[in-house]
């Protein structure tokens, strides 16, 4: 039963690892990378859970091995006792169980070793996935910075080149408009001043004529 569990677990790990390595990065850089990072986070968490399962499995092998070795030592001691008292029937039972527990301990030791080696492999792969995830997050930060620069350049370009006008041409246009307004108001002021002065002179002339009369 434990061997079947172990085989199923190995298949699950290999399946997750293949899915991780077969993924392809989509076309749209930042949007696709965000989606890929979220998916990678989920896959990394799955492998983390598989790692914990594998660790518990290795611990269970160790527990079963300890039990088998304990029973093996116990039967050896009991065999020595019954042999001393020439209890042949009990001695034969003890020998059979010594052989059984010995075989079981040997198999469990091999399975435990395989489980620990596989655990190390899974942990290394999980660590690799974690590093890949960190690299993707750094790449996202790099791309976001480049995107910010690109957007800033675009906005500046749009500001200065709206309607096809270059910045210098737009400034000259504004400056010309201001100068035209200044000239207009200066002329208006001159006309107004001229009219006022003439009106005062005409008034003085009228007043002088009235005094003579």
From TrEMBL:
<keyword id="KW-0175">Coiled coil</keyword>
<feature type="coiled-coil region">
    <location>
        <begin position="33"/>
        <end position="132"/>
    </location>
</feature>
<protein>
    <recommendedName>
        <fullName>Phage shock protein A</fullName>
    </recommendedName>
</protein>
């Amino acid at each position: 039963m434990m061997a079947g569990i172990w085989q199923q677990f190995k298949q699950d790990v290999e399946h997750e690892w293949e899915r991780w390595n077969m993924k392809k990065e989509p076309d749209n850089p930042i949007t696709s990378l965000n989606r890929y990072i979220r998916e990678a986070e989920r896959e990394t968490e799955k492998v983390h859970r598989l790692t914990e399962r594998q660790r518990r499995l290795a611990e269970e092998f160790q527990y079963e091995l300890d039990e088998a070795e304990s029973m093996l030592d116990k039967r050896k001691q009991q065999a020595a006792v019954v042999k001393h008292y020439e209890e042949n029937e009990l001695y034969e039972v003890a020998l059979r169980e010594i052989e059984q527990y010995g075989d079981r301990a040997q198999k469990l030791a091999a399975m435990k070793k395989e489980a620990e080696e596989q655990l190390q492999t899974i942990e290394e792969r999980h660590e690799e996935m974690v590093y890949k995830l960190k690299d993707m997050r750094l790449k996202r930060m790099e791309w976001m910075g480049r995107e910010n620069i690109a957007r800033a350049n675009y906005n500046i370009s749009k500001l200065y080149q709206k309607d096809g006008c270059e910045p210098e041409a737009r400034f000259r246009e504004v400056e010309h408009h201001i100068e035209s307004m200044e000239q207009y108001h200066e002329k208006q002021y001159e006309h107004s001043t001229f009219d006022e002065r003439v009106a005062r002179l005409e008034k003085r002339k009228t007043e002088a004529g009235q005094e003579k009369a």
